[in-house]
User: What shape does this take?
Amino acid sequence: MSDNQFAQLGLAEPLLRAVADTGYTSPTPIQEKAIPLVLKGGDLLAAAQTGTGKTAGFTLPLLQRLAEKPCKKAGHPRALVLTPTRELAAQVEESVRTYGKYLPLRSMVMFGGVGFNPQASQLRKPVDILVATPGRLLDHVNQKTLSLSDVEILVLDEADRMLDMGFIHDIRKVLALLPAKRQNLLFSATFSDEIKTLADRLLDNPALVEVARRNTASEQVGQRVHLVDRDRKTDLLIRLIKDGNWFQVLVFTRTKHGANRLAEKLDKSGIPSAAIHGNKSQGARTRALADFKTNKLQVLVATDIAARGLDIDQLPHVVNFELPNVSEDYVHRIGRTGRAGCTGEAVSLVCVDEFKFLKEIEKLIRQPIEQFTIPGFEADLSVKPEPILMGGNRQPRSSGGPRTHQAGHPQPRQARTSEGNKRRPAPKRTGSSEPRSRG
Assistant: This one.
């Protein structure tokens, strides 16, 4: 493709220069479809898997639409981007700075976990683009350090996760503070029924863009399962990392405590590691992510909420130390790798207790995941599964044991599931095993 492909989308010269500085020469499918539509000024409903380039898909045209008339009023942003997590907010604002470097526009990021007053000080100057989490945004509105009365463009990024995290009430409060006449852009990994309901209320005759089938795993990601007993998972992970000389490994656990414990064990084994989750201070989370990106840390151990929105270029390895008990979270997890045309690998360490989760995941992604055992780490498949109870999340439907193979070895017998998988009344799903964060 020629160097002027972004120009064919209608982008101005300062933006084309900034894109060229990043080394990108051709737009991704979501960028190719979304940018011209946003430039026209209409509302947009877009579904794209994580890692498809959706951030540039809205930041580039947003910058162009604002460039003709920079903001003159302090504390009155003209564009508002709402994100579910602090990390995603910081990364979106970084993209705004990267692509807007040759434009006379000013941006800032706003989230909780850091001081309120430095943000209030920034708002005493004109701000064109504000990227924020909902909780801290409303704090500033309530303290009258911020007005949303001049917002011309609203972007809801990863709207599905915002709903999962319980932000719908905050979103409604924000919408009530915005001018009736504005452009609305809603980006979501999937078009769930809840997203469609929100879109019906928020969007006016929107254009529709969908670049991936609902709840599909990236074709760029190789997936495999290692069967292993629960108490041997840490030893197997250490073996895989050291034997494979893996660097930049993102490992998922179900709980914050589990993330801390695993990071400590990896660190003691000589693998530089850190945990990232909602109980960590924002400073610690930012440092850990920076060290991971620069290879000072070999492994980052994360919970689902903390990792949502992490944008790490060419991340080669994602490991599910524990399978999520909400199948859709598996798709979001492995979407951390195989981004922007690069290949990646997703490895899941699965014990007998997790067979039912594995079956639900395979049903969702519509494909079986190849399974292996490593000599010396064979799982005892005759053990009766123990129920895994995660307060607040639905229990997946019960299912049988997995298929498995090991090169040159006979098929192991299937795990018993008659008693261990009895169904019980499912508690109301909250969408996350972690408590809601206000950003």
User: Anything to note?
Assistant: Residues 135 and 438 are 5 Å apart (CA to CA). The chain has two domains: 7-210, 215-433. The mean pLDDT is 82. The longest strand covers residues 221-227.
